[in-house]
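Example record for the data management plan.
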Amino acid sequence: MNETMLIVTVLSFGLSFLFALGGVGSAIALVPVLHWYGIPLGTAKPTGLFVNTLSMAGASYSNIRNRRLDFRMGIPIIISSSLLAPLGAWSTVFISRTVVLVVFILFLFFCGIMMIFFKGSRYAGQFRQDRPIVLPALIGGVAGYLSGLLGVGGGSLISPLMILLGFNPKKVAAITAFVVPFSSLIAFVSYAIMGTADWSLLVPAALAAWAGGYAGTHFMHLKMKAATVKRLLGVLLLLLAVKMIFML
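Corresponding structural encoding:
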């Protein structure tokens, strides 16, 4: 194992462990950190998408098995996100690296602020029971496009927006875990077709991320409060955003 592969493996495990403590995927931090380390953005993004696919697929399987998933609400989001994810990936051919980094910085600021300040209990006891199509599909489409463009799961966008609309956070979490693997996989395939995926990094990164996510989830249930950890992760994302400003 060469130095780069070792560093990527350690980063994948460590970030997946940390973000699993807060119950969220690590790709949103993994992609900018890998790029910061020196991995080309075009290689870091499919690595993050591949990690997302494997880690969130396990969570989605668990939700389906335990009947926590509302398929009727999830289907419009998964269709729109899956359609626009490859468009996001392919648009990187025409969009400059600087523009992608600016969008990434704004996305990190948004996600960081949401993790620190957003409270999902606003509608506690009066969650919506309807299943609209247009607005969730719109949210899914934007999330899917950003997933392909930035190499991150769109869950960090889908979850707070759906909760702000008044839906049960537990139901939203299950839907997000269902949507993200599909959009991530489709966007990853787009990058693989474009030839930017590096399998020598993808495989150890994915295995390390799976192990880190599993360990982090187990440790969270034993020792940690997810709300507190999310605030700390939000601060980390804001620091990453500031760091990326100097990469422009």
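Summary line stored alongside the record: The chain is about 80% helix and 0% strand.
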